[in-house]
Amino acid sequence: MSVELRLIDHIRFSSKLSVNFACEYSEDDRILIIGDIGIYIIALKGCMSNPFPSYYCKNYFLEISDFTPSANIGIDINSFHKDLERNDLYEATMSMEYSADLKSTTPVDPSPLCAQWSPRGIVGKTDCLLAVLSNFYNLEIYVKFIDENEVTEYCMICGVTQEVIDEKKTEWKYSDRLPPTVKYNEMKRRVQNISCTAFTWSHLYKINGKEYCTIFVGHMNGDVTVWRITGRVSNSKENSKLHFLGRYSTQLGRIVRMHWHITKEYGGGLSFADSEGKMSVLHVKCLDQETADIDSELGFWTEADKVVVDKITVMIYDGRTYIILVKQSFLIIYGLDESGQVFDQKVCNVGCYYITGIHHFDNTILVLTLTSVLKQYTLSIVDQRIHLEEKLIPIKVNGGKFRTHGFFFSKNMVFFGLIAYPCMLHSFSKLKTFLNIFLFHNALLNPLTIIWHNNSGSLRDYWDCLEMLRLLCLKDKRFPWLGIPAELDYDNLSLLKLKTLRWLAKLSEMVFNTVPVVKNYDIKPYIILHYLVQIKLILKRLNGLLSKKQSGEELSLFQMRSIDIQNFFLKEMVVKNVLAKANVGRNFINEIKQVMRVANELRYPAMLHCVWCGEKIIGPVCLPPHADSRCSITMMPIYLVTSYKCPFCKALAHKEVGKEEDVIFCPYCDVPMEQLYADEKTEEFVNKDYELKSEEVRSVCFDDCLKEGLSFSDVEENEREYVVLSDSEDESSEDQNKLRTLYVRLKDVSLEDIVKLDNGEEQEAGPSRKVLKLTGGDG
After folding, report:
1. 469 with 614, same domain?
2. d(Cα 156, Cα 708) in Å, to the nearest integer?
3. Is 65 exposed, middle or buried (CB count within 10 Å of its CB: 0-12, 13-18, 19+)?
4. Which of 49, 209, 296, 420 has CA atoms 20 to 30 A from the CA of 407?
5. pLDDT reported for residue 700
6. Which three-class secondary structure state does DSSP give residue 747?
7. Does 600 lie in the same domain as 556?
8. Dist CA 226 CA 196 (whole Å)
9. SS3 category, 269
10. Same-domain check for residues 575 and 506
11. Residue 30 CB-density burial (10 A; 0-12 exposed, 13-18 middle, 19+ buried)
């Protein structure tokens, strides 16, 4: 697959760039940018109603810790550095690893050298951790934390360097009485043992059903330490403890680059390179044991050419493995066959340009240089030899004005991001400089096609396509559904297709006024699709709960009340004639009949009373009608502070849902809901019992429903009441009385009314209509 780029947006930050390969796209759709004093984190905020034609995201800044390993090794250089010999004094003063806390020198600010996302799923089975290495050679792990006010911060939960110190300090001996030179040599040995100079994450694996991940750490003395971190249930501030799996002394010197490649469930290959330019691979296995098995070090680039390896990555294609090294302007590719033997080596010079970014997919390698040159190399095997075909990809960035320090692709490769920084002298002397992110659309990929042919069953990994579709529709002033068949059988569409159409309808209504000429509008209104999705979601949940009850499992009080409310919602959909308006057929009707047949027979506990108005909650809208917070999954009310919130559509979820599901996903967006953490006083207040006890009630039985259910016999001929939802809260007492009357009738809606729909008796409205407005809800 080739790449064709169209500039879509431009983002700027007031920071500088100091490293190459300065960005990375995470598996949970976050982008990190390595600045000079910290890490910028960009998180996508999917919203199909955003009218601005710019990338909709939320930005965070992670300030780097000033922890220095040299200050925590039991030897204080300030106490003896003046007594050192000249050469040792110069070395100690000029080396950051030894003099970071030297008081007689100008202090140096901490800055990031490297940052990397963990695999997705180590946090709450959905999110990534972030590991950051500073110029003080301190490695720390961070997690995203959100408080009750939805303020996001990145909290340090594990100091890897501190863990290394704790593991190694048991070997250290008392050193206060040593001569200055001997003490300095002992200090260097300790610093080189514990300072982290490179790291990489392993894949995610399970032990006894629990998620774990391994972090490999390279040190100054050439050692590699292996640490296992346990998966976190949530993104709280609670610290994580590492489990030490072993230390291996390699044949190389100071390790500067590392890369992990999985080959089996609990093992793989660890590639690493040192400051002399040499590169080796370690075979690692038994990551699930108390001690990892590390052996079989194999040297690949054994020449100490003093050219540091800038990047190591591994590509799999057609059953073969390719280890790719970046050395300044050179690509070095090792081809390994299925047995792990090297069958060929290829060295490619991309030109007189320093490589600052690399990405590979299938048999294609994209390489970015410092001077904004993007090249595509297509790999093939001819007579057991590696062959590369080169192609230049034009990008609209002025290479004479900017220096590019990395790039990234989104998950479905519809977004291409370029990290650039001004290089002209006048930019620094007269103007304020900015870190620039240029966002491009890969014009060879149609985001709508990717979304519509999504077979994953979820929208979770396709929000980059939805966001790109929104930007293209706003810029090109067109509807998003162009290309989808106009005549769709909504009755037989899957829940995923209905969710997709729901968001496309939302976007269509937002861009409607910008489209110059509207010849046709081949999609249902958003509110209709919203109701269809709600019905499908409720049917899916109720079928699961009713099946559990039928099998003898005891449902909780919360679950029984939610069944009562959601069954009431299905009745409301019948009275409002939503199915007929949506033009759906027998499948929807049969599914509703099946659920109502069982739900109407259940005995339900007394419903909660609204904490705001005191009325008993008997449906999805509180009486008297007023806005209240409802769980998007169960329709149960949420008091004061929500526990879970969708980062995209802001849908809420009750904390009790956490007892039903290990992972709470937004029912509309399919992205993991963010857990919000309140302070102790708020939590204590929220956890108070608001429930008012009363006797159990029983719904009208099935037989009575068929005989005495709502038949509309009390409505005059050729007249019909329509239910219209409204956001207005200024309703008359007459309307409120009508609303109460309607809800009393809704309690008696039975299968007879569903049967009428099934038989085609929709009772279309005649020439005269009565309109009754309801407040609240989603209308």
Report:
1. no
2. 63
3. middle
4. 49
5. 41
6. helix
7. yes
8. 12
9. strand
10. no
11. buried
**What range defines the domain where residue 504 resides?**
447-524
Whether the Cβ atoms of residue 38 and residue 63 lie closer than 8 Å to each other = yes
- The answer, yes or no, to whether the previous bond of 624 is cis (omega within 30 of 0) is yes
What confidence score (pLDDT) does residue 473 get? 96
pLDDT at 704 (0 to 100)? 41
In the beta sheet, which residues pair with residue 455?
none
With tokens 């790999």, the residue in question is: 379
**What residues does 317 pair with on adjacent strands?**
320
CB half-sphere exposure, 518, CA atoms < 13 A: 13
State CA 588 to chain mean position distance. Answer: 33
pLDDT value of residue 701: 38
Is the Cβ–Cβ distance between 183 and 174 less than 8 Å?
Answer: no
* pTM for the model: 0.87
Per-residue pLDDT tens over the stretch 289-325: 999 999 889 999 988 888 999 999 999 999 899 999 9
Distance of CA 277 to the CA centre of its chain: 36
Question: Of 779, 740, 770, 755, which Cα lies nearest the Cα of 619?
Answer: 740
Strands 320-327 and 223-230: unpaired
Q: Is residue 478 part of a domain?
A: yes
How far is residue 211's CA from residue 226's CA, in Å, rounded to a whole number?
Answer: 17
3-state per-residue secondary structure call for 26-71: CCCCEEEEECCCEEEEEEECCCCCCCCCCCCEEEEEEECCCCCHHH
**DSSP code for 232:** B
- Tell me which residue of 204, 230, 198 sits closest to 217, measured CA to CA: 198
Q: Give the position of tokens 């057991």.
A: 384
CA distance 70 to 67: 9
Whether 458 and 587 map to the same domain: the answer is no
Local structure of 91: helix, strand or coil: helix
DSSP 3-state assignment of 3? coil
The residue to which tokens 């080596």 are assigned: 345
Helix (H) or strand (E) holding 429: helix 425-429
Residues 437 and 388 sit within 8 Å (Cβ to Cβ): no
Residue 248, in any domain of the structure = no
Q: Could you say which residues of the chain have pLDDT below 50?
A: 689-731, 762-779
What the block records as the tokens of 614 is 């005191």
- pLDDT of the residue at 759: 61
595 in a structural domain: yes
Confidence at residue 779, expressed as pLDDT on a 0 to 100 scale: 31
554 and 459 within one domain:
no
Report how far apart, in Å, the C-alpha atoms of 672 and of each of 352, 462, 662 are: 45, 13, 11
Spatial distance between the Cα atoms of 235 and 593, rounded to a whole number of angstroms? 41
List residues bridging with 302 in a β-sheet. none
In a domain, 461, yes or no: yes
Q: What b/e string do you get for 496-531 counting C-beta neighbours within 10 Å, with b at 16 or more? A: bebbbbbbbbbbbbbbeeeeeeeeeeebbebbbbbb
Tell me: do 614 and 721 sit in the same domain. yes
| Spatial CA neighbour of 192 closest among 215, 225, 170, 216 | 225
Q: Which of 524, 547, 564 is the last residue of a domain?
A: 524
Mark whether 623 and 752 lie in a shared domain: yes
Residue 720 CA: distances (Å) to CA of 99, 226, 577, 731, 772: 84, 72, 11, 21, 11
Q: For residue 409, give Cα distances in angstroms to 3, 87, 391.
A: 11, 48, 18
Closest CA to 79 of 66, 90, 69, 92: 92
Number of domains in the chain: 2
Same domain? For 724 and 635 the reply is yes
Domain boundary among 466, 501, 524: 524
CA distance linking residue 336 with residue 353, whole number of Å: 28
**How far is the C-alpha of 253 from the C-alpha of 646, rounded, in Å?**
48
Residues in the chain: 779
